[in-house]
Design a protein that fits this description.
Strands 6-7-8-3-9-10 form a 6-stranded mixed sheet, with helices on both faces. Strands 2-1-4-5 form a 4-stranded antiparallel sheet, with helices on one face. Helices cover about 35% and strands about 25% of the residues. The longest helix has 18 residues, at about 195-215. The chain has one domain (about 5-20, about 30-265): Rossmann fold (3-Layer(aba) Sandwich). Strand 1 (about 5-20) and strand 2 form a beta hairpin. The chain is of the alpha/beta class. Helix 3 packs across helix 4. Bound molecules: adenosine-5'-triphosphate (ATP) and magnesium ion. The site of adenosine-5'-triphosphate (ATP) has 10 residues, from helix 1. Adenosine-5'-triphosphate binds near residues 53 and 54.
Length: about 270
């Protein structure tokens, strides 16, 4: 498999949630939050998933991590592989451990979601321990390398999460996600809470990691100014469905759909 081959292909992905429940708690009706969504994340590249609040971006991202029990369609991981890819929606529970090593999730508050009672180095070490990738002095060395790679002083690993700024905590979340050497990282609004300067620094970190490790990102973001210049491809969602997708530069300079045009009009800087 080479760069540009898909790392993930979604085919007619749907996610539903219980809408109405009966008196005994049984589900009476369902509501589709994601419907007939198909896209490809190319290996070594970034696909941005954009659209207004509630359009189904996070539900899509969470389905890739196996966190949406009511997802249907196909989610093929490494579809160009010899086995034709594994459908994540059909993965038995025993298959998830191996896949979770390869697909990581970083979300808006991933730094704040760290266990506040654990020192930062312990939180970064956790996935390495779960997957038995390092132990003893080797474990600490690996954690130090990860902290350094995301721009943090390894000595700061002795501190607790609440002693870091929002941007630094997001770097810790990224370090934690990188430990298992994932191939695909689902980033859900990871720079949305940061100011513009820190946003740019985190995006530069992500771009550097992509060049260095051939990482692929599904980059969920409501801010089109962030996506422009960062994601090679963009998919626009509206009301649970895909409105438009294509190369970011092309789409942003000549959007085909009125909805995409409206989103772009709301961004002053593009
Ligand atoms: N656990 C849930 N139970 C029921 N409905 C849900 C649940 N999570 C999300 N939804 C609904 O599904 C739809 C899509 O939500 P989702 O969180 O995927 O949107 P989003 O695009 O990520 O929005 P935002 O930009 O605000 O994060 C929304 O209508 C939301 O209310
Ligand atoms: Mg969301």
């Amino acid at each position: 498999m080479s760069d540009g081959d898909p790392i993930l292909e979604a085919r007619s992905l749907a996610v539903r949630y219980p809408d109405q429940r009966g008196p005994l708690g049984g589900v009476r009706s369902w509501r589709r939050a994601v419907d007939d969504v198909s896209f490809v994340v190319p290996r070594g590249q970034t696909l941005a998933l954009v659209g207004e609040s509630g359009c189904g971006k996070s539900s899509t991202g969470r389905a890739i991590l196996g966190l949406q029990p009511q997802a249907s369609g196909e989610l093929l991981f490494r579809p160009a592989g010899a086995d034709g890819g594994r459908d994540l929606l059909k993965l038995p529970p025993s298959g998830w451990k191996a896949v979770r090593r390869r697909i990581a999730l970083v979300f808006q508050d991933s730094g704040s979601a760290l266990n506040p009672r654990l020192k930062v180095w312990q939180s970064v070490a956790e996935p390495l321990q779960i997957h038995r990738l390092a132990s003893g002095a080797g474990l600490r060395r690996r954690v130090d390398e990860l902290l350094e790679r995301v721009g943090l002083d390894p000595a700061s690993g002795e501190r607790y999460p609440d002693q870091f700024s929002g941007g630094q905590r997001q770097r810790i979340g990224i370090a934690r996600a990188l430990g298992t050497e994932p191939e695909l990282v689902v980033c859900d609004e990871i720079v949305s809470a940061l100011d513009v300067l820190v946003q740019r620094q985190v995006l530069e970190l992500l771009s550097g990691l992509q060049r260095e490790r051939g990482l692929s990102y599904l980059f969920i973001c409501h801010d089109l100014a962030v996506v422009s210049g960062f994601a090679q491809r963009t998919a626009v969602m509206k009301g649970g469905r895909l409105a438009e997708q294509g190369p970011t530069a092309e789409m942003f300079s000549a959007p085909k759909q009125e909805y995409t045009r409206c989103l772009l009009d709301a961004v002053p800087l593009i």
